[in-house]
Amino acid sequence: MPLPALANPHISWGLVQKAGEAGLTIYKNRKGIAEGWDSALAFLFGKKRRLLIVGAEGAGKSVLADYMAGKGLSPKYLVPKRSIRVEKERSQTEHLRLELSIIPGQKLKAHYDGKDAAYAGDKALDAVIHVFANGWLDPDRLAPGDALGSSPFMAYRLASLNHELRMLEDTCEDLKRHWSHHHQPINFAIAFSKIDLYHEELSTIHDFIEAEIRPRIQDLIHHVGAQNISVEALPVATHIDEFRFANDVFQPQFGLTIRNAYLNQFGARLVDLLG
Ligand SMILES: Nc1nc2c(ncn2[C@@H]2O[C@H](COP(=O)(O)OP(=O)(O)OP(=O)(O)O)[C@@H](O)[C@H]2O)c(=O)[nH]1
Ligand SMILES: [Mg+2]
């Protein structure tokens, strides 16, 4: 399928950051590399790569993994319920050996055990994808008794965002653990998920990353050494859908054509990183 160009003038993802200084780059929309999701997967033919997908409850991890494994594009696809155990996905193609482990966001025993096994197990990871919904966590996914869901939407979103930032800090600590255990270089992608819900805000993401994300990863990069970790922020949308909070309904801001472009761009960048 030919790819449409990403045509939103607000997108500021093209600003590649001072990579040498703090090691964080915001992925640039490079024309020409997004050859399509299928060819992105095919490029990884035969190569075994171990990816871990982490992030908060309802951030979109399982759905992203389903799209990465090719299931999500099926017309019969149904979005999964809350995850309660570590999920494993592989590409459905015969030869691709992309192994995904998805850690449930809810802090169950499986969450901690899954992270222990992934970060300090026998085999090193090639990449960690932290799925970050920019505050658009599904309200029904947060743990019972969590007060976040009782506030009006903006307060909810702010609380969700803070929750996600704390989980990002956890991931940074886990990546330090991975380094201590394996001493292997790793790719760390912060996937800004569900961008169909906040596409019009993308121009502000750059400032948000500078203010909130970069300070949180600086220590990680110093700990691991900038030459041993690549850190990138990648926008992605998968299952575009309306978002409900109490009586408010928020509609997606773009359709499948733009979704496909982001998805393909995301896949192409993974190929760049892992191929
Ligand atoms: N609008 C929109 N909604 C999305 C997108 N991706 C996921 N969602 C919605 O977010 C919900 C949660 O996604 P999941 O993938 O199940 O979330 P998760 O991160 O696996 O959450 P846990 O299993 O609770 O840890 C889905 O049911 C979808 O309704 C997206 O790209 N756009
Ligand atoms: Mg899940």
Could you walk me through the main structural features you see in this protein, from its secondary elements to its overall organization?
The chain is α/β, with parallel strands linked by helices and 275 residues long. It has one domain: P-loop containing nucleotide triphosphate hydrolases (Rossmann fold), CATH 3.40.50.300. It has 7 helices and 9 strands. The protein has helices at 19-22, 37-43, 61-68, 109-120, 153-182, 202-224, 256-274, and strands at 24-26, 48-55, 87-90, 97-102, 127-132, 186-192, 229-235, 243-245, 248-250. The strands form 2 sheets. The chain has a 7-stranded mixed β-sheet, with helices on both faces. Helix 4 runs parallel beside helix 5 (153-182). The longest helix has 30 residues, at 153-182. The protein is globular and about 50 Å long. The model is unreliable at 1-35 and 92-96 (pLDDT under 50). Bound molecules: guanosine-5'-triphosphate and magnesium ion. Magnesium ion (MG) is lined by residues 61-62, 80, 83, 104. The site of magnesium ion has 5 residues, from helix 3.
Helical residue percent? 25-40%
**Oligomer description:** single chain
In total, the number of strands is: 9
The whole-angstrom Rg is: 18 Å
Cα-to-Cα separation, first versus last residue: 21 Å
The CATH homologous superfamily is named P-loop containing nucleotide triphosphate hydrolases
Strand order of the largest sheet: 1-7-6-5-2-4-3
Overall SS class: alpha/beta
Number of helical segments with 4 or more residues: 7
User: Could you give the order of the helices and strands?
Assistant: HEHEHEEHEHEHEEEH
β-strand amount: 15-25%
CATH architecture: 3-Layer(aba) Sandwich
CATH class assignment: Alpha Beta
Main pleated-sheet profile: 7 strands, mixed
Integer average pLDDT = 80
Bulk shape: globular
What name is given to the CATH topology?
Rossmann fold
Which kinds of small molecule does this entry bind, naming each only once?
Answer: guanosine-5'-triphosphate, magnesium ion
